[in-house]
Design goal:
Elements (H helix, E strand, L loop, with lengths): L1 H21 L12 H5 L6 E10 L4 H17 L6 E10 L4 E9 L2 H12 L2 H11 L2 E11 L14 E9 L4 H11 L9 E9 L4 E8 L2 H11 L5 H8 L3 E11 L7
Length: 260
């Protein structure tokens, strides 16, 4: 009958449409682990917090002095399960900006413990109140470290530091990690690799690579040298399409920074 014929045609078209659409659907293998568990050093459970403080230009010197009086005491006090990895002022990039990187050994429980204890610390409360008068804005992110990167350790200076930040396309973090697990080997010759991190809270699918150089010319020479190594160009070729946005800061460590 006409009705049956139309039904057959409708089913046939539905199947064709489904088959056609399936050509453009990316197949995803089921996983029992979050991506972060595949990329980080699970046995160490280090959590990092990076802070970006935009300081009023006329207050930057006073801000640095205030931080130098308070932050090292928290770093040195075993009562707080955290460490100040580094603290810098941006030299090139966003101006009048301070960047602080903290490590919490023990992950989220350590972070919670520190935050609860600092609320009871009158010196820190006074520091936050005074600091607030000097800031235009602030933001932070919670990060994990890539398993294949160096863990940041104190180093002597003088050095300049470059923080390269990459906003990746959602769903590409594993792919990025696979390429950089090989690429990091090309960037160890001058001890320039300091640390590599990816965001968990804050801007998501964000990667931060931290590098150290003696000066800007050393940076130029080191980066040019990577292109002379077989395999580096391939990593760049395949990772650039994963990036939505990227940013570079050249930073100078403050007196309080363990990374000099």
């Amino acid at each position: 009958s006409l009705g049956a014929g139309l039904a057959v045609i409708s089913v046939s078209r539905h199947r064709e449409d489904s088959w056609f659409k399936s050509l453009f659907v990316r197949k995803v293998d089921p996983r029992k682990d979050a991506h972060s568990n595949l990329l980080t050093k699970n046995e160490e459970s280090n959590l990092y917090k990076i802070q970006f403080h935009n300081v009023k230009p006329e207050c930057l010197d006073a801000y640095n002095k205030l931080c130098e009086e308070v932050l090292p005491s928290i770093h040195a006090d075993k009562y707080y399960p955290c460490e100040l990895v580094g603290t810098w002022n941006t030299w090139y990039g966003e101006q009048d900006q301070a960047v602080h990187l903290w490590r919490y050994r023990g992950g989220y429980p350590a972070l919670t413990e520190v935050m609860n204890k600092l609320r009871q610390n009158k010196e820190f409360t006074a520091y936050r109140k005074e600091r607030g008068k000097m800031l235009l804005s602030r933001r932070n992110q919670l990060l994990l470290e890539f398993s294949f990167w160096n863990e940041p350790v104190p180093r002597e200076g003088p050095n300049i530091y470059e923080l390269r930040s990459y906003q990746l396309r959602p769903g590409t973090m594993i792919e990025w990690g696979n390429y950089w697990a090989r690429a990091i080997g090309f960037r160890q010759h001058d001890r320039e690799a300091v640390g590599g991190f990816f965001s968990q809270i804050g801007n998501l699918y964000m990667v931060h690579h931290l590098w150290a150089y003696k000066d800007l010319q050393s940076r130029e020479n080191t980066r040019n040298g990577a292109w002379q190594q077989e395999g580096w160009h391939e990593v760049v070729y395949y990772t650039v399409p994963l990036i939505q946005h990227m940013d570079s800061r050249i930073m100078i460590p403050t007196k309080a920074s363990p990374l000099q």
